Amino acid sequence: MTIWQRIRSLWGAATWLRTLHVAMGLLAGALTAGVIIALVFASVLLVWTVVVPVIAVGVLFWALPYLTALQRSRFSAYLDVTIAPVPRAWPPRNPLTWLVGQAKALSTWRQIAYHLLCPLLNGLGATALLIAWGGTITLAILSARTFALAAYWWLGVLFAVIAVGLFVAGPLVARAFAWVDVIAGKALLGPSISDELAQRVETLRESRAEVIDAADAERRRIERDLHDGTQQRLVWLAMNLGMARATLTDLPEPARQVIAQAHEEAKQALKELRDLVRGLHPAVLTDEGLDAALSGLAARAPLPVRLSVDVADRASPTIEAVAFFVVSEALTNIAKHAEAANAAIAVVRRGDRLRVTVQDDGKGGAAPERGTGLRGLAQRVGSVDGRLRIDSPAGGPTTIEVELPCE
């Protein structure tokens, strides 16, 4: 780009948009700062009432996002600059807690700082632009009139030179103040690094919840397909082999042994498939809930199990599946490794937390680093932001406590 093109570009549409941005910034800043100052003044003036300051501060914190949105729209309309909004917790579950949280948030005071700074910054910019553009026009007129007086032609030249200088300075002044305003707006109106990190964490948490729900739905689909398809075919095969075993008694002994062996293998395969299906996601868990599903687990356990379930309201399917997996894995480990005579399971829901406790009177010594079972259990609990505690001293007893969020 040549020097002439650069000079000519100074008076393009961008310059007039920057000028409008500064002018509208003065008006918008006067409005937003006026609202803030009025609410603060009312709070100070009527501080003795206690109620009015609380209401005024609440109104200020409620209105702050709207005042900020007004300023962000100015940046977008005139400068094509996008400032990301600050995450807002609304509507508040507890107004007092929300009020305290807003007062503690650094983003609240950053926004207030910008609204108070805006009329000063843009007022200074508007004054400088008024001097530049207004001075250019005024001095141009004076220069023309002075040239008409032959005795004062040198004064006309001086006025003309100053007018040209102001005319050249106008676009630079508009660009400078718009640039400073953009820096202040992005620094004070947009989300801070902590806000962005918190938003990122929330997004990742939601994504993880969606992945977990999708995996749980896939397990239910696999369980349904195995139950309605493969399992039914195995049942049919076992029945036919059983009928052949019972009726074909005149076959040679080797053939009868092959049929008998095939019959036993089919029944074993059917049993293993049923165990696999129950381990994936038992249908009774979806239909009847934790009480019925855990009752089935306790009944099939190879040792006496005492079960207590106190769940008035059902949790989400994902949380119920994790609780079922915890109990199933714990009972499997007890049967394989604990050498226990008895076990006890307690499931209690209090508020938004579901607590699962599994105890046994075995030899103890259970630790996640010693086997994949407890490690997988810890991973499954952690996937839903749950907490796992294992207390298993040498000699026993072993207690596994899991706390799961129900929201």
How large is the radius of gyration? Answer: 38 Å
Classification by helices and strands: alpha+beta
Rounded to the nearest angstrom, the distance between the terminal CA atoms is 60 Å
Low-confidence stretches: none
- Helix % is over 70%
Q: Given the structure, what is the number of helices?
A: 12
Mean pLDDT: 79
Q: What's the main sheet like?
A: 5 strands, mixed
| Strand percentage | 5-15%
**Side-by-side strand order of the widest sheet:** 1-2-3-5-4
State the total count of DSSP E strands.
5
Shape annotation: elongated
Secondary-structure element order, as H and E?
A: HHHHHHHHHHEHEEHEE
Characterise this structure.
A five-stranded mixed sheet has the order 1-2-3-5-4. Helix 2 packs across helix 6 (about 155-190) and helix 10 (about 290-300) runs parallel beside helix 11 (about 315-340). By secondary structure, the chain is α+β, with helices and mostly antiparallel strands. Helices cover about 70% and strands about 10% of the residues. It has twelve helices and five strands. It is elongated.
